[in-house]
Amino acid sequence: TQFVSKQKRIEDVITELESLVDYILDNWDSVLPEGKDRLKKIEEKLSIVLRT
Prior knowledge:
This protein is mostly helical. It has helices spanning 2-26, 33-51.
């Protein structure tokens, strides 16, 4: 069904985000300050989405 498909896509995106976060944390010392600022903004947006 459409709901199951959407749920699967959401799970796939979460998996990709987790992999990306792991990569960023492993390489945190080489992330530029601008990149860290962008990541903080993304984190804020995600926390808002997760609260709804």
